From TrEMBL:
Lineage of source species: Bacteria, Bacillati, Actinomycetota, Actinomycetes, Glycomycetales
Transmembrane segments: none
GO molecular function terms attached to this record: DNA binding
Listed PROSITE patterns: HTH_TETR_2
Organism: Stackebrandtia nassauensis (strain DSM 44728 / CIP 108903 / NRRL B-16338 / NBRC 102104 / LLR-40K-21)
Protein name: Transcriptional regulator, TetR family
């Protein structure tokens, strides 16, 4: 799947997006208003609307950029890992490191839960990221000679579930446990 490329932004728009991204992730999308974003970014609300058009578009830009950052980071971390099985397992290591700076769980899942309108464009960003992860695992399994769509889904469940278990359940070893379960699944498929 193609990687999402964020648009180039003016300095004011960059500042707005950076501030909004921090506030949306730390406090939640629905609790953060445009007044707070404007005050924190030291711009007027008019500037925000001139650059983004609406809060909906700003939320979508936040998630799109976060998605791009995660994909780029994961791709870069996996690039030098030899072999598809090792890449699959390394994805859990990358996730564990990523979660050190992302203490509120998955921004995509959090946003999806907050945005009740099924037509909100930001929900599509969340959905696309999860499809991308499944396709990544499917591709890696295919490279390993394993054509099992069900196994790709299981790997996504372990990956995503470990984030929830760590964040909501406080299970500090959730990602390591998920990695171990992924290794067991791969072993049962002859890889």
């Amino acid at each position: 799947m193609p990687t999402v490329t964020p648009p180039r932004l003016t300095p004011a728009a960059r500042r707005v997006l950076d501030v909004a991204s921090t506030l949306f992730y730390e406090r939640g999308i629905n609790t953060v208003g445009m007044d707070l974003i404007a005050a924190t970014a030291k711009v007027t609300k008019k500037t925000i609307y001139d650059r983004f058009g609406s809060k909906e578009a700003l939320v979508t830009a936040y998630l799109s950029e976060r998605d791009h950052t995660w994909r780029r980071h994961l791709d870069a971390q996996l690039a030098d890992i030899p072999g598809p099985r090792a890449k699959i397992l390394a994805s859990f290591d990358v996730l564990a490191a990523w979660m050190g700076d992302n203490y509120r769980g998955c921004a995509m899942v959090n946003a999806y839960a907050e945005l009740a309108d099924p037509t909100h464009p930001a929900r599509a960003v969340s959905t696309d990221q999860k499809k991308w992860l499944k396709n990544l695992f499917t591709d890696l399994l295919t490279q390993a000679g394993i054509n099992d769509e069900h196994l790709a889904v299981q790997l996504v469940m372990l990956h995503e579930g470990s984030v929830v278990a760590a964040y909501v359940g406080g299970m500090t070893t959730a990602v390591a446990a998920a990695r171990q379960a992924a290794a067991t699944l791969l072993d049962t498929h002859g890889e």
